[in-house]
Amino acid sequence: MTAERWLAKFAAALAKNDIDGAAALFAPGGFWRDLVAFTWTIKTFEGRAEVKAMLAAVLSNARPSGWTIRGAPSSDETWFTFETAVGRGLGHLRLREGRAWTLLTTLQELKGFEEKAGRTREWGTEHGVLPERKSWLEKKIDRGNALLSGERQPYVLIVGGGQGGIALAARLKRLEVPALVVEQNERAGDSWRKRYKSLCLHDPVWYDHMPYIPFPDHWPVFSPKDRIGDWLEMYVKVMDLDYWTSTKCVHAAFDEAKQLWDVELNREGRLLSVKPTHLVLATGMSGMPNMPQIPGAESFKGRLVHSSTHPGGEGWRGKRCVVLGSNNSAHDIAADLWEHGAEEVTMIQRSPTVVVRSEMLMEHAWGKLYSQAALEAGISTELADLTLAATPFRLLPQMQKPVYEEIRKRDAELYAGLDRAGFRTHFGEDSSGLHSIYLRRGAGYYIDVGASQMIIDGRIKLEHGTIDRLSENAVVFSGGKELQADLLVCATGYGSMNGWAAKLISKEVADKVGKCWGLGSDTKYDPGPWVGELRNMWKPTQQPNLWFHGGNLMQSRHYSLYLALQLKARLEGIPAPVYYLDPVHHLE
Amino acid sequence: MTAERWLAKFAAALAKNDIDGAAALFAPGGFWRDLVAFTWTIKTFEGRAEVKAMLAAVLSNARPSGWTIRGAPSSDETWFTFETAVGRGLGHLRLREGRAWTLLTTLQELKGFEEKAGRTREWGTEHGVLPERKSWLEKKIDRGNALLSGERQPYVLIVGGGQGGIALAARLKRLEVPALVVEQNERAGDSWRKRYKSLCLHDPVWYDHMPYIPFPDHWPVFSPKDRIGDWLEMYVKVMDLDYWTSTKCVHAAFDEAKQLWDVELNREGRLLSVKPTHLVLATGMSGMPNMPQIPGAESFKGRLVHSSTHPGGEGWRGKRCVVLGSNNSAHDIAADLWEHGAEEVTMIQRSPTVVVRSEMLMEHAWGKLYSQAALEAGISTELADLTLAATPFRLLPQMQKPVYEEIRKRDAELYAGLDRAGFRTHFGEDSSGLHSIYLRRGAGYYIDVGASQMIIDGRIKLEHGTIDRLSENAVVFSGGKELQADLLVCATGYGSMNGWAAKLISKEVADKVGKCWGLGSDTKYDPGPWVGELRNMWKPTQQPNLWFHGGNLMQSRHYSLYLALQLKARLEGIPAPVYYLDPVHHLE
Fold it and tell me: What are the tens digits of pLDDT across the range B436-480?
């Protein structure tokens, strides 16, 4: 059966409510990944039974129709468009022996609430005679004042104004959903600017575009942090977002009776209360810094900082520096300290690291979707995002393994060198590499841009083991070994995003929602059971009207669409029955 | 002869230096417009004799080759690419009866000095070990300091940081030509922000993109001035331009011996000297405000301002307001005063105005090249610009006349109404409409967005005649008639750009260069002889190393490319022999 024929049969089965017939079109182990179109959540269904159960619940509401091949289908793969009762969608189908191996359905817009763009964009000026006409600027100022005085309430409050919060706010702006972003820093983009000086994005530019305004084509492959900061700052401005800087979220509580959040903000020292209907935590998928409690810290005469507040290598010339941790930040910080003339730089590795050279990732992992070559082959950013989304997370490891086998061969010398130096590498428990560990843990890897060679050469020294305590001037390991230190940077990562829920809302709500991120892969730091999607991200949670948004630039860009559509549907009273909520996982 | 065949014959003739043969391929009245590719200036050659003379002078340097059809040619029209000894070009050909009726040749890039974009973009970070590595931000700060201290000199100094200066600086940045923009306002974009409150662009968004970063597709059709201001400000930032705000150019003198400009700047009150090789005046194609000297002005108790400094209608409720002039600004200002409740608004018309409704322009004038429909038909902004450039200015009036005949019919009621109200309209001396008068005078028109109806309705009153003097509280006309006035706004336009040359450099240099803008159409305000291109714009002038840049957003975008390439060639020592300099026209 060709893809075209399959789609016709599938459409016919759904049209006549033939759920068994529709499910029978799937291979026994086939997958259906739905991004909000059918289920009003983000969920992958594995096997016919799950597909059937879902269809039985949602079909009468979804009422899909208009299934149409888009582009030129190959015999066993195609893109297609479709409609539901309330929206328009885009999907992808892969066949195996005539049955659906993977099906993706995504909601792209809501009927009657399309973004105003192209032919439907605003006119900008009103021709004719309008007494007391207000200019765009006056209206903008009025709007800002009304928000500040509380006269106007945001429908959505987004806590955190990094790329995640900004991308979501931009989509909500285009969808005409009143939203306010609060950012604790003084300027949009500071969440990047304030990180260590040498930081550049580890993902290439093609992966990093914001929605609607792509980087110009001279933008560097790996963007320096301050440049991304500037880009985000201008983006906030020209997208005309309601964005309050120097504003901290102090506390939020959900008023069940009013179905509103009661949020206390501290804006430039002044306490303000806002009452949004929805609260989005976009405080960074990494959550709050994990700072280890090390005995003796108070007597340590050197400097002790978490990587998130380490400004850079300047000022450490001639000093002995220790970096705890062996992932991205640890490597960048160690290399930067060495380049700034530190007397001695030692990295303490606690567990094996997935190391992949940046060039290998470009060539073997991102290249097909996110590269100049891909772009020239007609793969737009949107198409790349959807292509990536079309592979269920269950299938990723097996697809990634050969990639990493190839990388291990190509960079055999690097891995052998690291091995000789005592640096422990792996490609994850199942050898599926970087993308897998990112989805499972959001950490555990180093995209090598040069520091691995410094470890091999011994310019960055290496220690293993557990820190027992700090003395006045040294790190003391469990075995008693002492390492002189003027600086200890703890590149020890971040907690789960629901740590923010605990801090800003309550322990009860954080526990009710459970951990964010992770797939339930039953690997270290990502215990089962399998859930098949990132927990709690971009979809309804166990706490009504609370949402989590975040991730890297690609995720912030792509998934903000689905989150924005969910919020728009609620604003407009469009029925959005949620098929499924993730059960709560390992409470903290 | 088909376009393909013509191009082959033309290429062969040029390859063997057969100038007569090449010229014979043109229709007797045929045109060749060259934008920098062959002549290192901007010039249209009319008829075979001019083509021959030009080829005889430039062919041995240009050495064109590689003429290749681009896209699908029609039988008598085609796009093509070609090379010269030093660059790559793009051209357009229209045949009539097998001979060239119009030929356009444009330089697009210099070999070996291509803009770094797409595959050749910067890496952004340097992988590996670099002791004392500096971050992007540190390098940027160092660069800024070196410029400020005079340690580093800009190769090009651009005076004026509106859309013209910014677009040119962006192109120079991508071409790695060190350039500094100085802008007298406090913020980039203020040249728009500071104008009257109700101002929106009169050209639609598709016409207004800056190079490299197009507006997102929700950007309004007619952009409010403050929004354009914000866009330009962000553009300066993310294009990473060297741009000094609050900086006035005090004086510039060309040092013949050193072949450098000696420029005195006032930067935030501090005098600085810079020594650029090239000086670009991008102070607005409109030059300095024309403020009429009206007897009695000193005793007038009302407010007297030029339109460029009139902030808007607020505060004039119940007052009697007079606007001198009847072009775009006059209409916008009068309507805005009325909308803000002025007791009486009177426009003084001194000469007939080209009035066209904005909707008519969109439909009949811009629509084919600059509209959503054009974009969807595959006409990119660049292609639209080149298509516009492919029509020699000599042919424009005859092509425009039928457009305006149609508009006159379609809007017969509007024109009859204006006539009844005593408002005098015309479509130019030869009825060729708005685009012609813009090229000839840069003024003389109103793109109607509603004020014409207010004149018809009598909400905006009308006077004609010459102001004799101002009394304490009235405008007094030559005939003795008095018009009570609390406010007189002189929407009396701007002088030629070489007024800036006189002010900033010297009367001698301004006289040597002559008037800017205008085609020599032998119409009012644009006396002959015919020159066929805008005088002194974007090309070498009689004053070595002095350039004029400006115009609307389209011109700033498109012609900045050719000016940037001319400057780049000079920086790199690429031979750029200038075939022709405009003779000086009607000195001021």
Answer: 999 998 889 999 988 999 999 999 999 998 999 999 999 999 999
CB B345 within 8 A of CB B321: yes
Which residue type is seen at B475?
V
φ, ψ of residue B520 in degrees (nearest 5)? 75, 40
Quick check: A218 and B238 CB within 8 A? Answer: no
- Residue bearing tokens 């002559």: B514
- Chain B closest-CA separation from residue A485 CA (Å): 21
Residues B302, B103: Cα–Cα separation, whole Å:
56
Question: Residue B349 in 3-state DSSP?
Answer: strand
**A7 burial type by CB count under 10 A (0-12 exposed, 13-18 middle, 19+ buried):** buried
Among B120, B121, B212, B361, most A C-beta atoms within 10 A, so best to mutate, is B121
Tens of pLDDT, residue by residue over B56-103, are: 999 999 999 999 999 888 889 999 999 999 999 999 999 999 999 999
Report cis status (omega within 30 of 0) of the bond before B529.
yes
Closest to A161 in 3D by CA, of A225, A219, A235, A213: A235
Comparing CA positions, the residue from A141, A121, A140, A138 lying closest to residue B339 is A138
CA distance B178 to B169: 9
Q: Which tokens sit at B117? A: 């974009």
Determine the 3-state secondary structure of B88 from DSSP: strand
Nearest chain B Cα distance for residue A414, angstroms: 13
User: Which residues of chain B lie closer than 8 angstroms to A217, CB-CB?
Assistant: 117-118, 121, 212
In three-state secondary structure terms, B491 is coil
Place of tokens 């709050």: A288
Which positions ≥6 away from B437 have C-beta within 8 Å? B354, B428, B443, B444, B445
The pLDDT profile of chain B, 588 residues, written as one tens digit per residue, is: 899 999 999 999 999 999 999 999 999 999 999 999 999 999 999 999 999 999 999 999 999 999 999 988 888 999 999 999 999 999 999 999 999 999 999 999 999 999 999 999 998 887 767 777 889 999 999 999 999 999 999 999 999 999 999 999 999 999 999 999 999 999 999 989 988 888 888 889 999 999 999 999 999 999 999 999 999 999 999 999 999 999 999 999 999 999 999 999 999 999 999 999 999 999 876 668 899 999 999 999 999 999 988 988 889 999 999 999 999 999 999 999 999 999 999 999 999 999 999 889 988 888 899 999 999 999 999 999 999 999 999 999 999 999 999 999 999 999 999 999 999 999 998 999 999 999 998 889 999 988 999 999 999 999 998 999 999 999 999 999 999 999 999 999 988 888 899 999 999 999 999 999 999 999 988 998 999 999 999 999 999 999 999 999 999 999 999 999 999 999 999 999 999 998 888 654
Is residue B354 classed as helix, strand or coil in its secondary structure? strand
Which of B127, B201, B450 is opposite residue A128, by nearest beta carbon?
B450
Name the residue in chain A with its Cα closest to that of B452. A128
List the single best residue of A114, A120, A121 to mutate versus B (max B Cβ within 10 A). Answer: A121
Contact A238 B226 (CB under 8 A): no
Looking at this predicted complex, what is its ipTM? 0.92
Cβ atoms of residues B509 and B279 within 8 Å: no
**CB < 8 Å to A125, chain B:** 200, 220, 222, 224, 449
Q: Token digits for A42? A: 């983000």
Tokens of B199: 């101002």
φ/ψ of residue B540, rounded to 5: -60, 145
Q: In terms of CA atoms, which chain B residue is nearest residue A122? A: B220
Q: Which of B125, B218, B312 sits opposite A117 (nearest CB)?
A: B218
